[in-house]
User: Fold CFEM domain-containing protein from Neurospora tetraspora.
Amino acid sequence: MFNQAYTMNCPPYPNGRPNLECLCNDVNFFNGIGDCAFRACYTQDAENTLGLAVIYCTDRR
Assistant:
């Protein structure tokens, strides 16, 4: 998913890492995670993936 992040008008940080501040405020980022997870996983796993994305964006350490 982060490879796709570089195409979402969220330039990476100077060290090359994805710009979470920008991505986590972009509904398309979460939609992309959801689309990818529900295509590749069972429903429960996809829901868990979305939950982890929310946690990841809430606690950006």
About this structure: The CA atoms of residues 14 and 49 lie 27 Å apart. The chain has a mean pLDDT of 81.
